[in-house]
Design goal:
The chain has helices spanning about 35-40, 60-75, 90-105, 110-120, 130-140, 165-180, 180-190, 190-215, 235-260, 265-270, 275-280, 305-315, 320-325, 350-370, and strands at about 85-90, 145, 150-155, 300, 330-335, 340-350, 380-385, 385-395, 395-405. It is α+β, with helices and mostly antiparallel strands. It folds into two domains: about 15-280, no CATH class; about 300-405, no CATH class. The strands form two sheets. It has a six-stranded antiparallel beta sheet, with helices on one face. A three-stranded mixed beta sheet has the order 1-3-2. The radius of gyration is 21 Å and the shape is globular. About 45% of the residues are buried.
Amino acid sequence: MRIDPYMLFSVRRRQLLSSVTHTTNFVDEKRLGATLRTIISYGILFLFLISGSASALDPKCELVDKVKPDVEAIRELKFKNSPKCEVLNREDFYRFKKSQYDADDGGPGRLENEEAAYKLLGLIPESYRYAYCLSKEAGDNALASYDPRTKSIVIPAETESRADILAHELTHALQDQYFNLEKLQRRANRGTDSALALGALAEGDALRVQREYIDRKKQKIPEEKITDSAECALPPALNLQTEFPYTFGALYVDFIVARDGAASLDELFKDPPKTTHEIIHRERPAGVVRTTEKKFRPLLSESLGEYTTGLLLRSAVTKEDGYKIAKHLRDDEFSYLAGKKIRWRTDWDSVLAASNFKRALASVLSKRFGVRIAEAPNFVLAAGKDAVSVESVGNEVVLEISSTG
């Protein structure tokens, strides 16, 4: 599942740390405290904008220049050149967002394919307008953004500038100048799991700078003013997924800095984490060679990864059990095929782990389709307009769902 389109998150009023209670050994959550909860609740966005009118003399842009020295001191990196500043009206911002999805997320139709695939899998409900809502929600709560293509800080004209948010976006500018974020994004955006992992590193780094900026300046955070569209309210799984780079990213970066020092972040950007497993457990998974079956010509092909697998399972088992099962995922390949069909191949670290996943998956499918599924090595289910097949051999479990509707 792509996140708007790379790492764009419209984060609203939520209890963000509640989604990571299964990783309490990560760092002491109290270190984040109320400040992190408040920071994340604003629309801190990292998005790629390539149009709009420059407004270098705008007071909003003047504030960017004032914040830069503090960001350099906190991040311990000097700007190679000064980022430009642009101010866009909201209408131009919305118009750009749709075109940006088409340009950067695989061309026209990419979001529509994702929407169909995730609805078949059950990650999002049939009623949710995924393609439409991603761009709409992104525009509603943006307070500032960094554009690595034009090397600009972009600020919506209608919003009030916040120095701490500009510190956050300026951190992304430093990341881009030193580590080429656009190139990293192109690689990471090939799959949900890698996009979330890189997002966690980039956003965790920017949040750390933002928190320290607030502490240095003793800045008061104003009361939230969040626009929440009823028609585009995020489904539970998508809601938690958009929070991942902020909640887990903050914990991950704090752990790395406490263990190895702030300079270690620079080395991580040179070889960034590629899976949510690395973010959650702070370790590189064993190498897995993915084999794609050539008989399939998917419209969409990616890896969902550990975190998203856990989100899917928690709809039928407890949150803790879902994540415990997903922890043992070694590799996966998720494909959306012509003819409204998905195929999800998962590879587990043991036969027992594969069996536990298959049992939990059967519960997910039983709950979703309202049909009791008896445990068996393989099963095929006809559920109204949908046909479901699950096969398991050794460490591998393959789910296929096709729809005639």
